[in-house]
Amino acid sequence: MNTIDAPLLRQAAAAAAGGQNFPTGALYVVATPIGNLADLSLRAIHVLGLVDAIACEDTRHSAPLLRALGIEGKALLAVHEHNEREAAAAVIERLARGERVAFVSDAGTPAVSDPGAMLVAAVGAAGHRCIPVPGASAAAAALSVAGDVGGSGFVFRGFLSAKGGERAQALQRIAADAQTAILFEAPHRMQSLARDLAAACGARRVTVCRELTKQFESVHTLAAGALPAWLAEDANRLRGEFVLVLHAAPRRQDDDAAAAHDRVLDTLLAALPLKQAVALAVELTGAPRNGLYERALARKRDSEGG
Predict the structure, then answer these.
(1) What is the spatial distance between Cα 114 and Cα 34, in angstroms, rounded to a whole number?
(2) φ, ψ for residue 204 (rounded to 5)?
(3) Whole-number Å distance between alpha carbons of 57 and 246
(4) Residue 252: per-residue pLDDT
(5) 255 pLDDT more than 70
(6) Closest Cα partner for 248 from 142, 137, 147?
(7) I need a surface site. Which of 58, 89, 91, 299 has the fewest CB within 10 A?
(8) pTM, two decimal places
(9) Using one digit for the tens of pLDDT, what is the confidence trace for 275-293?
(10) Is 305 helix (H, G, I), strand (E, B) or coil?
């Protein structure tokens, strides 16, 4: 944990966020650093010092962070994937008494491939507010440096199942989807994932982010088909936690051209007989007449319901 002047930092946090409204009887969902302590927001620091109790994915993991911030004496509640439903009842009981409770996962934003969703749903169903305190997110950080110029939105996949059948099905869905996909992976399964991505998505680009925000952070973009060989070149490339951005599949030029030709044909067919429309479309697009004629026939049949 980085060495910091905790009292000075909390004073700065209070100056920045202390004048804001922090309702009682509310759950504060607080993003924590994914590696670099300096990424913790001043608002998050103030909230963690203000709340009456802190629910943690792992109290042993969160305790050093709180000590580094000079936050001691708080009630720490264990809320993890194995007890989340039962632990939610204890949190709700505190909220009903008018307490403020924060929830933190081990790193990053809760409920994003971490526990938290069930807790938030239970708290909301009980009629209490859930207030996000945003901050570090490994998925967003990786996407921001991927340079995926063809992407428009993304699908967050997180960690794929370790079970063979479920994992294979997930990879098939990812390969079939042209949209950008974000995956997490542990080091001991990284080589296996690399082989699977190379086989299923060889021509697509993938950005491999390792140890994001930490001392040995690395970001590298290459074709998915080259990923296994690239990892094998240096044993250090398999160290640490991974976030992968599978870039959006490039749009095929043939598909783009066909869509443009269809727009021209639809416009001409609305005003001209088929043969004249095709002849003019040939002049406008430069596409082969036979292909345009077949497309025109098909579109005319579709428009007439036959």
Answers:
(1) 12
(2) -80, 150
(3) 28
(4) 63
(5) no
(6) 147
(7) 89
(8) 0.79
(9) 888 899 888 888 888 888 8
(10) coil
- Alpha carbon separation from 73 to 50, 54, 102, 103 (Å, rounded): 12, 11, 14, 16
**Sequence-distant (≥ 6) Cβ neighbours of residue 242 within 8 angstroms:** 184, 185, 186, 187, 190, 208, 209, 210
Q: What is the dihedral of CA 21, 22, 26, 29, to 10 degrees?
A: 110
Residue from 28, 57, 96 nearest 65 by CA: 57
Could you give the dihedral angle defined by the CA atoms of residues 162, 165, 167 and 168, in that order, rounded to the nearest 10 degrees?
150
Cβ-based burial of 84 (10 A; exposed 0-12, middle 13-18, buried ≥19)? buried
Return mean pLDDT, the chain. 92
Tokens 């009629």 belong to which residue? 127
* Residues belonging to the chain: 306
Single-letter amino acid code for the residue at 296: A
Residue 168 burial by Cβ neighbours in a 10 Å radius (0-12, 13-18, 19+): middle
Instruction: Let me know the angle formed at the C-alpha of 192 by 187 and 195, rounded to the nearest 5 degrees.
Output: 130
Give 187-243 pLDDT, tens digit per residue. Answer: 999 999 999 999 999 989 999 999 999 999 999 999 999 999 999 999 999 999 999
pLDDT at 253: 52
CA 214, 218, 219, 223 torsion: positive or negative? Answer: negative
